[in-house]
Records
---
Amino acid sequence: MFAEIGLQKIHPAKQAIRRLGLIAIGLILLACAFLKPQIDGDGPEYVMMAHAFYRHATPEIRPSDIAEITALPGSQARTNGLPTELLAEVPQKLGQSGALFAGFASGGVGGIQAIHFWMYSLLATPIHAMALFLGLNPALAFAALNFLIVVLTAGCILRWLPKTGLTELVILALLGPVFYLRWTGPEIFSACCVLLATLAMIRRDAALAIFLAGFGATQNPAIAGLILAAGASWGLFALRPQWALRHKPKTTRTRNTVLGIAGIVLAALPYVHNEIVFGMPSIIAANFTDPHVVSWERLSSLFLDLNQGLVAGFPGLVLGAVLLAALLGKTFRLRWLAYAAAACCLTCGLAFPSLAAVNWNNGYIVVLRYAYWAVMPVVAVCLIGLGQLSAGRRRAVLAGVVVCQALTMWQAHWPRGSSYLEHSRLADWVLDHAPRLYHPDPEVFFERETHKEQELARDRVIVHQGANGPTKLMRSWLNTGDSGGVCPPQQVLLSAGTGTALGWDYFDAPFECGQAKRQGADWILGAAGSGQAALLKEGWSGLEPTGVWTEGGRSVLTIALPPGKGFRRLGIDGVYFRPGTMTDLTINGVHLGPVRLGAGPIAIPPSVQHAAALTIVLLHRHPVSPASLGMSDDKRPLAFFLRRIHLDDGTLH
């Protein structure tokens, strides 16, 4: 009964209506793609790589390539969002220090390289050449490529699922393409690869699924996880063929072998490229990810954040899945729910690596980019389910999806553009009227309140102002004495706060103020600080205006404690030279194990809380010099930049 879902004959009149509908959907998507396309996100990298391929068939970006792109008329550059002034600085900046700059780095075997892989740019190169020939906006090349990818994906779906009609295609268009068609990045490419790979697994074509997963993994390595999923599905259906929804397609061993090997090679290609060019498997993983920021809070942010989360961006998908579970026939429903559960697991697996991104609040349109392509397995299963509904029930699901997505577009300020530096209407309303219900990732709250992308500094206190005054405050646990103007002078917040995994606390209105009870001590490091000579013992470099670097593998601090005061918590605030680093910490001979400095309070062992002094030994894992990374001539082995030391007695206020 489940073996050939989707096979039916279509009446000629219905075929004509479907063709007209397909044309209408195509025109709408074209409008979304080409209506003021701009170079967004990592777009400058992809534009430059496409131009490099066009000029000399390599991804190496030469100064002449940059000169040609930056020579575009100023009005055209401003219109398409091309940062010509920034690009013009790239050769000089990388030539001076070799450091990463604006998404580019010096390659060991060839000039300037973009830090992202080049597959997406290679696909765009023919269209880029045509755009240059016609004197068009360079961003049009990527919008056109995205449109072609969506069309090819729709064609595959129509062929693989013959029952697919306008309902499915409209829903598919609303779940991402209408937002990301004009985006100069591989989100459409990645999402379509994940969607088709999942459908290929359901069709029992594991070899094609492996190829599509490897193809998508060239731009988003997490998609390579679908290669393992394809292998698992092949083994499962071999053991339990009755669980499959489709008969195994007739394919040849040669074809399957070629596709499987090609998919694995494609997935490995970015790592090989990075190793050859940068001397490491992934320059992005080394410099822009930190496994220690992975937390349940981040996972919750990916799915539930009111600004950029999956549920807020795709409520139509959630409603559609619920309606399918209610409307499908009982026998098929159980099978479908099992597939839906597996798809949810795939989505979580695809999304998990993205939780380590250092820059969590980044450019996107309506829904976080990682969430968009990671949720495609669920979309694939929903497409299968829609094919089992009657025409009337399909229209009911479509109506629900359209209404939900229309509301999402409105609340996210689309099509004007959902900025990652401002709150959505939904998030703003909740922060104004029910702030206790929304504790976003600290970076999300910080940058959307300040309307600027900047370092999340521990000395900042951020306050959300509602129509009737402040409603929410965020500060580091170190800043207990700073109420951000919410309390009168000489008073502090006495309200109970909600802590986060990264050492930031949220406080919600109504605020309670009063006299401070907590006892603490602070030392600010840097040229403007005082009494620092007594703190810094061995393993420290010279003082700089805002702090001091550790130098070597071992650094020692000695802190004389005021008599009669017992301190229970220690704060060592600063930033690591390289993300993802840990430090082995010992206090007065008591080993506390590996800790991540600057992430939150460190409990002082009870045996030393009343000592006359604390001797803190920091053992740094793999200190590295900027010179060894080609960043500068600085040969100091650096690990951590210390800005502040804090001690307190651990009381609430």
---
Amino acid sequence: MQEKKHPMSDYPDLDSELQKTATQYWAMQPLFSEGELQKIIAARRAIATASRTVVYAVYENRYARSGGIFAVAENLPSALRNVCAQVVVMSPFHGGLRKAPDRPGEIVGQVEVPFDGRSVTTTIYRYESQRVRWYLFGAAGFFDAPGGPNGEDPYDHSSAAQPRVDSNPLQLRDGLFAAAAIPCVLQALGIVRDVVVHVQDWQLAPTALTVKEAIVDGLLDSAAVVLTSHNPYDCKLTEADLAKITRRSSDASWPRPQLEADQIRPAGDADGDAWSPLADRGTPVVGDPTAIADMPHGGADAVVRRRGTVYECMIPLVDAAVSTVSRQFARDLRTHPLQVVHFTSHLQQVFGLRGLVGVDNGLFMQPHCPFTPDAVERASHGDFAQILSEKRAKRATMLAALTEYRPSARIGGLLAEGSDDLTRLADEVPVFMMFGRMDPGQKGFDVLAQAVRKLAANRAKFIICPMVPARAEAFLDQWRVIAHQRVGDVVIFPFRMDQGYRESMAGATFCVMPSLHEPFGAATEPYLEGSPVVAHATGGLIQQVVDARENPAEATGVLYQVQGVGTAEQQGRQWRAILESADPESRMHYPLYVSLVHELAAGLATAIGIYQQDRQAYGRMLSRLYPQAMTFDWNRAAAEYGAIYDAAARAG
């Protein structure tokens, strides 16, 4: 099968943003003397590409997972070996989690880490995955999150016994300690020369500072730091917080940039109205970074005012443009009302000065075509009978599995003509599936719940498979009500399914992804199982899902888009109110949210119409799933990250 050229293979932003290689002197000079600054610059320029070691630093690992960040860390580093001499992964050992072993690997050393005025003994462990060495480091009193209700989330310091624990200060403490530990661990391992430390998210972003201090102090010979942000979240950072890892903590050391008027990009300006899709996973928000959004940006006042969040402080210290995990999401961070008003208002200056690029993730599953070569070949000639037959077989397998799988903890249940024998379900009745974290601030389970109410009873069946954190109980309760109201149409499995999960993903007529915002998304997962997707047009989902209404010949699902009313500032404030609503029903007070529900209901109706009334179109859609999934490739991602590493080493 000939693979389709990716619609953004000529992506222009990477080269243009990587031209922003100049050292951010306005941020560096208040921190370092001229001699120290020249030593840092020389150490960065001394990195030899031929012998370069990339240290992929990430908060998650095989024993501590939350969303898609671990999936990236498990897949990308092996591809990065194509652009460097050596790749290692570095991650904290979260020993308080339910699945954490006593020893996560071979002990390869210990090191003393200076932190908050004391020396902390830190143990280094090693294991190997996909031919890449992982180094985990742990210390008593750090990385001890119990993991929330299921004991698995490294960002969640609550537990069943203590559900009200505030995770925010503990997560910041652990992130700062990790940043302090990384240069020490590198020195202990002998990784001190030709090093690019590739840190992920705000938790490890302070490594941009600690690596530079390690160069000044002679711990590292030649090194640079680059940053990838997998989400829009940030964290407040005070002088007292910074003092735990550096003597350079005073307000005067962290000024805001003084910019000319035409360089300022305030939240809610006309750029927000310019948002549009390209034509061609995570942690909770910590603190309220938007609280500083209204501070003046220019004039003498800007020099006095201190930068107030982790990203605001650390992005100017990284050595190349910041990256994020899809090209569309990079644009969203600079232009979408939700981002520029609610999440990233305070970051627009540093994004503009340092640069921001999107590097698309690859596949999170081993690539495999969900249909036989014979079915694919026939479909390429316009004969979809075989591929439709194979899809019906997947549906039959799903219905048989769900008929047998009836755990007591499930909510609701599906019925076929009043019977719980789902193998009797009429072929024309579509089955939708939604899966993932029930994150009230991102994934949109509540949007689907409201959309289900708008569809007539018995028109479709819904399989809901959420992982439910403690803060989402009200949103799970909403689905309990839906299951009671729509008996036979809805089943919820609020836990990891022992059986039937993959069968459901493969047999579903469509999977649903109504994310409020989505850095990358997971549409490629159901594609590889043989199911198209109904999705909100946001972030990476815009790139993954080809809309049947816009491009029926290439369609892989249905995209719907919110109909925003008012200025970008007004829309952004509605988004903020929606995300801050603790009660899912109260979100219906906001016109923007009502539009999300209405458009999703219309998208579901479109999907139902295609399935029931145009089997040729549905068969064509099935034939496009695998080629579309294969446009996302870790080797291409690695090549683009390689360009970022090159830019970091040549920064002036």
---
Amino acid sequence: MTVDGVRSGDENACGGGYRGYLNDVWRSKDGSLWNLVTQDPGWRGRGEHKVFVMADLFWMVGGRIGHSWSVKSESFMNDVWGSPDGISWAKYQEHAEWEPRGAFGVAVKPKTKRDPIDRVYLCGGHSGPILDTNLEENFFDDGGENRPRTPLTYHNDCWEWQPPIALGQVDPWLRDFNESAPEASSYRYVFENSGVERLRLVVPMDIIRPQDPSILAEEGIYTVKDLASIGRDKVLKLRLTPAGSTNPAKIPHICDQKRLAIAVMDKCRVQEEDWLKTESQQQIIHEVYADVDGNEIVSERSEAYTGWLYPNENRFQQDESENVKTMPETDLSAKIERWDEAVESWDGCSQIGERGKLDMVNSPSEGPDKYADVEGIPQIQGWMQTWRILEELQCRNIWSPRSHVHGTLFQGDIFMIGGRSGDAARNFSNEVWYRDAELPQTTFTNVPGDRSPDNSFSFSADEEGCIFQWRLNDLSENRVEKNWTTSGETVNIDWLELGFHRFRVRAIDPANNVEEDFEEGRNQHTWYHTPALPVGLIVGCVLGFFAFCAGVYLEFRRRRRKAAMERYAVKRMRRKFRGAQGRTKEKEVDWKKYGKQAKDAAKKAHKKKKAGAVDGSAKTKSKHKHKHKHKHHHEHGESHHAKKKKQRKFTPRSSTS
């Protein structure tokens, strides 16, 4: 094939404006030696297309056609061609259901016993106008390097297709996980581009009424993303009654609907998480519940690790404090300035100012729980409980829009790898995503018995990498004891009360698929709980009783011994004074009075003895000194006496005549 007199393969790779697109088909057995199959397959020369094999046929889809030296000739295609041998090709679709594009990813999932139909998935790619790269204005500086500016539209949608039975019986391409698709699984998911009607659960607590989607469509609001970004003018138009009209407001709860849409956007924001769990990581407890005013409260606690959390689990609802711009008490001019700033940025829904203030200057209003009007427009005084709806909505995870993504099949799963999401070099990605359309299922491995004090639950999922959420209801009082709480594969509830309870657990896989169905005995357990006897309290009470009895017994023995000693002492005194009475022949003695006097005398003696102990050391010293003096005197006397005795012994006695 020649282009402007230049044979294919002889172009020089220097400068621009030289490349053309080809349509020849080659074949090889080993990838080293190639044989030309055909130079005229019937479809136009192109690039950025994809060729794959499915149902024993070659298929070629999409791509970019034209040549680079003429911008007007380049365009994107969305045709589908098939061939049994690569030589003869037939056009199965002139225009497929997906937008014309190039540089997309394709992966084929062959039929299995479980799914006896071959399927192909086409994902990502780019499309749009192509600028002339010969003009300097169509280049930009990317870190010192000139790169062509390509205002392309990048995609992240996926389309599913089945091989046709015959040339004239071609099934349409179905957008994967789209609410308009016929498969039931698609209705489980919501994302930013879902229609507003997807926020309805068809339950009494719905915030969006059946007629609201059509009213919003009249204002150009079609998707969840549109509703989340609705501006002040449209909010007031839908929320307020038209001036001079008796008709009610079109959508009085438009602010609650906007708040729900923002919460969905936040919940469905994809975050990178590590799904490899350890035992310590499974101890994270995440609690979501509502207070008496309906405001959601989120708390987290962990026994050993705080790094692993289910993504989006703490985003069920925005904190109301984020929507209230508080104004601390300052001087009047500062308060007015803050009020003016808040009014200027007011979106028609946020609560500004302080409750109970008529405005920032005047005295308090009659209603102590009112927010002041903003330029005559009443503020929202309270919020509906959007978290009840939000917890029932399931997000569809998807990568950011990109082209040049590579698709492959591995172990039965469709993988999309890498890609480019912009013109700059930094926009290349090395992310790996896989398609998971199967909802996980949880099965109990251990549950407490009926009318028993057991409070431990164990369960497992049929997919790896799942985390779990459990919910507990008190059926006796028909109330929620614990809202959906994240946990590992074991839950111990040590605060259960007497009565009927219902425990539900659901699994969430890494693709954010949430288990929907609950079956008694599999992932739902209803039982009558009987709290365990307080063994510690009983043992403590018994030990305390015995200790009390022992104390009473010991006190009784002490008093009885004391009384016996007193009786014995009285008897001795009686005997003593009877003898004294007999000798003196006095009248009988009043023994009780005498005993009392004896006790008083004993007390006085004890006090005197205690007082004498203070100068005991001085007396002891004086006594020792006296003893020493006496000893010295005794020794001296003894020596003198011995001397005199000796003198008497040796003095000769005079004789008498």
---
Amino acid sequence: MIGAALPEGIEVTHLATATATATATDDRMVRLRAPLDVHSFGINQVILQPGQRNRIHSHTAQEEVYVVLAGTLTLVLEGEGHDFAPGAVVKVAPGVRRQLTNRQREPLSLLAVGGLAAHQHNVHDGEAFLSWDDPSPRLIGDVPLPDDCPPDPA
């Protein structure tokens, strides 16, 4: 099954390396929404070289989540800077002015995910199955986690 053709509805793209310059736009973003054919939210990779920053901006109805992949994000919120290391996940509400800044000496790479704040997540939208042969979906909470798989041999 590993390496088999992907089922319909699955799209794959790759992140740029942190040392690359953002390719497709001059606002330092690698657009991921279109290559993934995503319709319900926006997703971009932001790459800032040392000293670079993006414009000050806000959104009237969109929440944004930033996931720091490499480097240190200085997120300026309403004029005050806050540093976030790799692994940080930061949500910024609509109406808050923000600026993404790289004040460090190494490149910064992060994911920016945005969607409408009024969206209500429906946890009951998901379905779980006991096995690949199980034709009957169940509520996710009604299906126990499976046994762990052994790691691939070295």
